[in-house]
Amino acid sequence: MLEDLVVGMVGSGGDGVVSAGESLLAAVASQGFHALMTKSFGSQIRGGESSCRVRISGRKVLNPGGVLDVAVALNWEDFRRFGAELPLGPDTVVIHEAKAGPPPADLAPPGHGPRQVLAVPLGELAKSAAGTDRAKTTVVLGILSGWFGIPPEALDRALQKKFAQKGEGLLEANRKALAAGIAHARAHPLDAPRVLAPPPSSTPKLLCDGNEMCASAAIFAGCEFFGGYPITPSTEVMQILSRELPKYGGVVLQAEDEISGVGAAVGASFAGKKSMTATSGPGMSLKTEVLGLASIAELPLVLVDVQRGGPSTGLPTKPEQADLFQAAFSAHGDVLRPVLAPTGVEDTFRLTVEAFNLAERYQTPVVLLSDQEIAQRKETLEPIDVSRFEVLHRLVPTPEQLAEGYQRFAETPSGVSPLSHPGMPGGNYLAAGIEHDVRGAPTASGAVHASMNAKRFRKLGALQERADLFEREGPRDAPLGLVSWGSSAGVAREAFALARARGLPVQLLVPHLLYPVAEPVYREFFASARRGLVLELSHQGQLYRVLRMFVDVPPGVTSFARSGAQPFHADEVVERLQQQAEGLVR
Amino acid sequence: MNAFLAPNDYKSPLKPIWCPGCGDYGVVQALYRALSAIGRPPHEIAFISGIGCSSRIPGYTTAYGFNTVHGRALPIAQGVKLANPDLLVVVAGGDGDGFSIGGGHVPHAIRRNVDLTYLVMDNQVYGLTKGQLSPTSPRGLKTVTSPMGSLEQPINPLLTVLAYGAGFVAQATPADMPGMTALIEEALRYPGFSFVNIQSPCVTFGEEEQQLRAHKTRMKSLASLGHDPTNQLAALDLARAYGTELYTGVFYRNPDPPPTYEALVRQRQAELQRGEPRSRARVLDGLSSRGG
Which residues contact B275 (CB under 8 A, 6 or more apart)? Predict the structure, then answer.
């Protein structure tokens, strides 16, 4: 029985590999499997290379998986473009379109060649069964069904959904293609047949991607205004909100540029509404000045940065975790701006709500640092009980405070001052990017500037105590530590479990709050974890470096980092941990 | 109905940073009078500006003010108006703020037709940074950044804004206070994007022919020329004289104002919300149907 199946499919744009992956995902989710699908493309608008990776398991799927169990190549040229994103190993079964010819000799490193390579006339099978070779990816689904025991009726339902709007003819053609694939698999069994172990529960799972979850959570958290500009890979947040937010009385403005998108959101926040913008690295660069305005004017704002490879245009369609410096530090002047990071689709809900709560509670911009993998991957979920989540609102002045000489930036012990908005009688004040006194009057006084800076930092001091924004696993006295954030944390969780199974004395720390650095949490962690790794997908290892600014990171804790678009695999992380563990006894 | 509000009810206790004799003093006085004539209480007014001498103006009123960053007053003001369409939203800034660093936002504010009144205090020079070339500086102007004279053709704010399709376009000068007050009031009442280019002299760095004394002799009211402000083509023709003639009055007023952006947004929200109100707590319900 197979506990875990990882399938990678590559074709040219228009071949429908992503669409087939979605059908597969929907089918297994309906059977109660856990599953996760990532997509990866070239940056061409149409055509170009296109791929998906689907991981299916009876257990919770923590990441897209490493080496493929099954690789499907519709042509070799496109397949090779994905390189380390779709690695082959000695257990991999490769199916390729027969017409594409045998795989290139350098497909895998010597000795790591796939277990079995099967040339399948996918196009011909599709044409003879369905009358069109466009159904060839459906033939692939049939083959997978036949080999691994994925119930054909579940795939059939997924096809019905997919083709419901496209006419009976197309559905019938694809059903025939599916049957042809199943028949082909029966006629050509694998050298080492394996069947996917059924899930413990057959209750269907929900499916969602990170951008949709982020948009949904924003609605839940009370977002009333979104201003933004299209940018890959965050655009779906704006698209979904454009469709959904007006149904709740909210407004979405597609602005003329990134600056006006965040500007309008800050304006709406000034006017009293919960506001949001979403972007990726290049847009974040452009929005920086207005973020500083929101900080000094103490206006709540949520900014979602769906990271992609950078700098500049970089790798627009691939994940990287290299915007942390920008999220935390891109500002002139002394600015403290909270940065939160989800690690997957499910916790994108919680952290988006948290981003709104922090923004409203502390009257500050908050950055939610997602990434291309999380944003555009689809994963199975158990239903989320939203009643567990508290929604906070900004502190507004009481009628008494408004009646007796309201001070917008009044000094308070917490640093948070009641915030009025236009339309509120007696709350009139001047919000400004220029330094101001407690009433909002512009000033050039160094003394006032110092006390206002102190107030703006003081109000975020409470974040130091938010241990609940960290995930901590394993024995608290374990001498080996693994720290990871964002999409890499899913790999870290699996590596942690594997390392524990090997008997390594390891504990795991996943920060959801990246900045400000909650020093007490790390101090406690590193007090026992004297050796270990900080795992992240960036050339510099940005979290590792940020931690070293604020915390005494033990010299035995090192950065395990590499540039984007080359996701980590759990096995290699375990190997590194093993090496670190050997250092413990030396 | 609100109790009568006098011009002084819109005046804040803050003392302006402007140089003595600055045209902006006249602008803020005219604005107090226009706001008083309209009678909206200050807390229902949001006054947004960018950066520059003139952008300090919100602080001199009792309205809710937002003195933002350079060039971004229009997008921020649109966010304010869309968030709360019941507010009276006024935007102000200088020629540099509006037509240089923020120039990219002007066409979009206009084409969306958000109901804002945009007052540009155009003095053809950068005053706050002490006398550099501005986008409306005349060709040949010698400044500290164009010591041998500007090589650039100035932008024509009137022609630009008319060409972008603004529904209300006027020009005023503090040399004619009653005229400027009336124009600001009319702009504030116009249901849609309205623009008033105010030739507001910089006494410190401005040219002699840009001062109020010169305005008094140069200015010509469009009404006295027999201009019909509903004639867009005639308005475009007259606007070409920016920089040579000082016309005051309404260049163009759309006789049949199209619906504002925020009105259309409200309409669409109402259509989508028909039936029982949506519960935000049920936002994830739709996910259940997506499995298989």
Answer: none
The C-alpha atoms of residue A20 and residue A536 are separated, in whole angstroms, by 30
Which chain A residue has the Cα nearest residue B264? A251
Place B2 in a pLDDT band, splitting at 50, 70 and 90.
low
Q: Is the pLDDT of residue A168 over 90?
A: no
CB contact under 8 A, B291 and A206: yes
Instruction: Please count the other Cβ atoms lying within 10 Å of the Cβ belonging to residue A89.
Output: 18
Arithmetic mean of pLDDT, A501-512: 98
Same fold, A4-204 and A208-388: no
Interface of B with A in 64-123 (CB under 8 A): 64-69, 72, 74-84, 86-87, 104-105, 107-108
Residue reference for tokens 């970089």: A314
Q: Token pair for residue A38?
A: 């990532």
Whole-number Å distance between alpha carbons of B271 and B264: 11
For residue A92, give both structure tokens: 């991999």
Quick one: fold of A4-204?
Answer: Pyruvate-ferredoxin Oxidoreductase; domain 3 (3.40.920)
- Look at the block and give the residue holding tokens 């309209």: B38
Which of A158, A297, A420 minimises the CB distance to B292?
A: A158
Instruction: Output the CA torsion sign for A33, A38, A39, A40.
Output: negative
**Position with higher pLDDT, A583 vs A172:** A172
A263 in contact with B, Cβ within 8 Å: yes
Name which of A265, A297, A434 is nearest B79 (Cβ-Cβ). Answer: A265
Q: For each of the domains in chain B, give its residue range(s) and CATH number, in order of start.
A: 7-257 (3.40.50.970)
The proportion of chain A whose per-residue pLDDT surpasses 90, expressed as a percent, equals 91
The matching CATH number, chosen from 3.40.50.970, 3.40.50.150, 3.40.190.10, 3.40.50.620, for A208-388 is: 3.40.50.970
Distance CA A197, CA A185 (A): 18
CA–CA distances in Å: residue B5 to residues A425, B13, B16, B26: 15, 16, 22, 19
Residue A90, Cβ density class (10 Å: 0-12 exposed, 13-18 middle, ≥19 buried):
exposed
Sign of CA dihedral A524, A525, A529, A533: negative
Quick check: A157 contacting B, CB < 8 Å?
yes
Domain assignments of chain A as residue spans, ordered by start: 4-204, 208-388, 395-463, 466-585
On whether the CB atoms of residues B70 and B90 are closer than 8 A, the answer is: no
Residue with tokens 């375990």: A574
B88-94 vs A480-484, strand pairing mode: unpaired
Interface of B with A in 119-158 (CB under 8 A): none
Question: Domain A466-585 classified CATH 3.40.50.920?
Answer: yes
Q: Kindly determine whether residue A432 and residue B79, on different chains, have CB atoms separated by under 8 Å.
A: no
Would you place residue B1 in the very low, low, confident or very high pLDDT band (cuts 50, 70, 90)?
very low
Ranges of H-type helices in A502-586: 519-528, 542-550, 570-585
> Is B268 in CB contact (< 8 Å) with chain A?
yes
Report how many helices (DSSP H) and strands (DSSP E) chain B contains, helices first.
9, 8
Predicted TM-score (pTM) of the model is: 0.96
pLDDT value for A105? 85
